[in-house]
Design a protein that fits this description.
single chain, 373 residues, alpha+beta, Nuclear Transport Factor 2, Chain: A
Length: 373
C-alpha cells in the first residue's frame, strides 16, 4: 500500500523542484514578456491617438506613393494600413544604413504626419511601440532571440501545467483556495495569491505560450507542415528586371478585389528587382486577424495578369492553424474581450513571479533562522 504513495510523493517532489527552478531561472523573463505583451495589446490605439487625419475620400495610392518617394528621396517598397481605421496609410522604405522605416501619410490630403522606424535602437527613438514589440518578440536579438523565446514559451507551458497540478485544490477546499481572509501569515498570503492567480490564468497563459512558440518557430513549423500536413507556401516571385511601365498600385488593388470581391486592403508590396510583381495583401470576412488579414493576390506588374491567389479564410487547414497564431496571441481572434483577456493574462505574469519569489525568499529566511537556533 505504501509503494504507490511513495512513488507519487517522489513524483510530486520532482514536479515541485521543476516548478521552483523554472520560476527562479526564467520567471523574470516571463514577467518581462507578460508586461511588454500587455502593453502591446492596445498599442496601435495609443499610437494613433497622437495623430490627426482628414476624414474624406482617400487620394489615389499611386499619388501617395509618388509624394512619399519625393520627400524621402528613394523608392518605396510598400504602402498599406498602419492603423485599423485606414485614414492614415504607411509608405515603407528600406534604408541600408538605418533599416526599414515607414512614412505615415494622411490618406485624404497626402500630408506626411509621422515617421516610424522598424528597428529603433532605443525606446526614445522614432517608434517606442516598435521597440517594445521587438523586445517582446525577440529580446532585440533577432532570430536568436526568437528561438530563445520559443523555447521559453514551451517551458512556460510546462510551468503552468505543473503549477495547476500542484495547486489544484482538493475536494471541498476550493473556497479556501480563493479566500484571502483565511490567509494569516505573510507567507500564506503571498503563496495564496500566487496559487490563486496561477489557477485563474493558467489556461490563458498556456494558450499564449503555445501561440507565441508557434510564431517564434514559424519557419521550421511551416517547412514541416508543407512536407507533411498540406501547408500551402506563400507565393515567391523570381527576381528580375522591372518593366518600363507598370500598371500602378491603384490598378493592382482593383484587380485583386476582382479576385477576392469581399476583401479589403491591408497592404501592397510594390515591384522591385527582387520581387517584380505587385503583392496585394487583403483581409476577407471570416479571418481571425481583425484588420491586417493574410489573404494575398500576386499580380504581374506590366500587364496586370493574376499570378497567384491565396484565400486565408478557406485555405488549407495547416495554413489556417499557423495563421491563427498571431490573432490568438494578441487576442484579436475574440475581438475586444479576447484582447482584454490577453492584457490581464500578461499582467498576471509579473504578479505570479513576484509573489512566488517573495514567498520562497521569506520561507527560506525563516528556515535558516530556525536552523541557526
Amino acid at each position: 500500500m505504501n509503494q504507490p504513495w511513495r512513488a507519487s510523493q517522489r513524483i510530486k517532489r520532482v514536479v515541485v523542484l521543476l516548478h521552483l527552478w523554472l520560476g527562479l531561472t526564467l520567471g523574470a523573463l516571463w514577467a518581462v514578456q507578460g508586461l511588454t505583451g500587455a502593453i502591446l495589446v492596445f498599442h496601435r490605439e495609443f499610437d494613433r491617438a497622437g495623430l490627426t487625419a482628414v476624414h474624406a475620400p482617400p487620394r489615389p495610392l499611386d499619388e501617395l506613393v509618388a509624394r512619399a518617394a519625393r520627400t524621402q528621396g528613394g523608392a518605396p517598397e510598400a504602402i498599406g494600413l498602419y492603423y485599423p481605421d485606414g485614414s492614415i496609410l504607411g509608405v515603407t522604405f528600406d534604408d541600408a544604413a538605418k533599416g526599414k522605416r515607414t512614412v505615415l501619410m494622411d490618406a485624404a490630403s497626402g500630408r506626411i504626419i509621422g515617421l516610424r522606424e522598424r528597428t529603433p535602437r532605443s525606446p526614445d527613438g522614432e517608434n517606442f511601440w516598435r521597440w517594445v514589440y521587438n523586445l517582446h518578440h525577440s529580446l532585440l536579438l533577432g532570430d536568436r532571440g526568437e528561438w530563445l523565446l520559443g523555447t521559453s514559451g514551451l517551458l512556460l507551458l510546462a510551468m503552468a501545467s505543473s503549477g495547476v497540478w500542484l495547486g489544484w485544490p482538493r475536494c471541498g477546499q476550493w473556497r479556501a483556495a480563493f479566500s484571502p481572509q483565511r490567509w494569516r501569515t505573510r507567507v500564506q498570503k503571498l503563496f495564496g495569491w500566487h496559487r490563486a492567480m496561477g489557477l485563474v490564468c493558467a489556461a490563458a497563459l498556456a494558450l499564449l505560450a503555445i501561440s507565441g512558440a508557434m510564431m517564434d518557430f514559424g519557419k521550421p513549423l511551416r517547412a514541416w507542415a508543407q512536407q507533411y500536413a498540406g501547408y500551402q507556401p506563400p507565393y515567391k516571385p523570381k527576381p528580375g528586371p522591372l518593366p518600363e511601365r507598370t500598371i500602378g498600385a491603384e490598378r493592382a488593388l482593383a484587380l485583386a478585389i476582382t479576385a477576392l470581391p469581399d476583401a479589403a486592403l491591408t497592404s501592397i508590396s510594390l515591384p522591385s528587382t527582387k520581387s517584380p510583381v505587385y503583392q496585394v495583401r487583403l483581409r476577407r470576412p471570416g479571418e481571425w486577424r481583425t484588420w491586417s488579414g493574410t489573404s494575398l493576390v500576386a499580380i504581374e506588374a506590366e500587364n496586370g495578369r493574376i499570378l497567384a491567389t491565396y484565400d486565408a479564410a478557406s485555405g488549407p487547414l495547416a495554413n489556417r492553424i499557423l495563421d491563427s497564431a498571431f490573432p490568438v496571441h494578441s487576442g484579436e481572434a475574440a475581438q475586444l474581450p479576447g484582447r482584454v483577456l490577453v492584457l490581464l493574462a500578461g499582467l498576471s505574469l509579473p504578479v505570479i513571479y513576484l509573489t512566488g519569489l517573495w514567498a520562497w525568499l521569506r520561507r527560506r529566511h525563516r528556515v535558516r533562522g530556525l536552523n541557526a537556533i
